[in-house]
Amino acid sequence: MPATAEIRWAADRAVTSTTWLKSRHSFSFGDHYDPDNTHHGLLLANNDDIVAPGGGFDTHPHRDMEIVTWVLRGGLRHQDSAGNRGVIYPGLAQRMSAGSGILHSEMNDSATEPVHFVQMWVLPDETATTPSYQQQQIDNELLSDGLVAIASGIPGQDAAITLHNRSAALHGARLRAGATVAMPAAPVLHLFVARGRLTVEGVGDLTEGDAVRFTDADARRITAHDPAEVLIWEMHAKLGGPAT
């Protein structure tokens, strides 16, 4: 199968909008269902959320899902039925494994400023496991120097937090204007521009909210035009089997 690179423009995403939430969905989510856009590789959700001061997601359930949250601006207050609680802020990687079932809430920690974050879902290798939670601070200088493994389940790959999926890893970078970094080479790759403007080798110019879905990706170069932040999923399988 030849390598592909499919651009998904920010303006084409489905949007959920309420008095306290603006959520932009890269894939089918909630009331927004498109049978031709349910996932890419192992990635089922890539929600770009802005929650107003005082707003948030009240207690709700999850099951059999690896949920990774990456805050871009502000603070997100987490609390769950396993007793985990705290505030997630930029640079603090967080993963909640819903396993056999968990309840949690996510609220804006500020009464005056919005919180902006990206929440991403992948399936675990095993179902009905004991729910678990992990968070870890990533040094800003590391993020500024190139790609950092935020979350990974790939054997032998060190990351800030662990995924219960042996075929998936999330990488991130905060790039200065003019900085260049190489993407991982992988059978399936998802690039999301969290902020800023950049150019992807062989693809073209992208801006905040744009994404690219790669198959058989090589180590293409990313060059930032102004300060930019990227989130890249490296995947070595697809739903239901290997990425072949």
From TrEMBL:
Needed co-factor(s): Fe cation
Residues covered by the Pirin N-terminal domain: 12-122
Cofactor note: Binds 1 Fe cation per subunit.
SUPFAM superfamilies referenced in this protein's UniProt entry, alphabetically: RmlC-like cupins
Molecular functions (GO terms): dioxygenase activity; metal ion binding
Domain Quercetin 2,3-dioxygenase C-terminal cupin: 156-235
Residue sites binding Fe cation per the record: H60, H62, H104, E106
InterPro entries (UniProt xref): Pirin (IPR012093), Pirin_N_dom (IPR003829), Quercetinase_C (IPR041602), RmlC-like_jellyroll (IPR014710), RmlC_Cupin_sf (IPR011051)
Keywords tagged on the record: Dioxygenase, Iron, Metal-binding, Oxidoreductase
Family (UniProt): Belongs to the pirin family.
Protein name (database record): Quercetin 2,3-dioxygenase
Species annotation: Mycobacterium decipiens
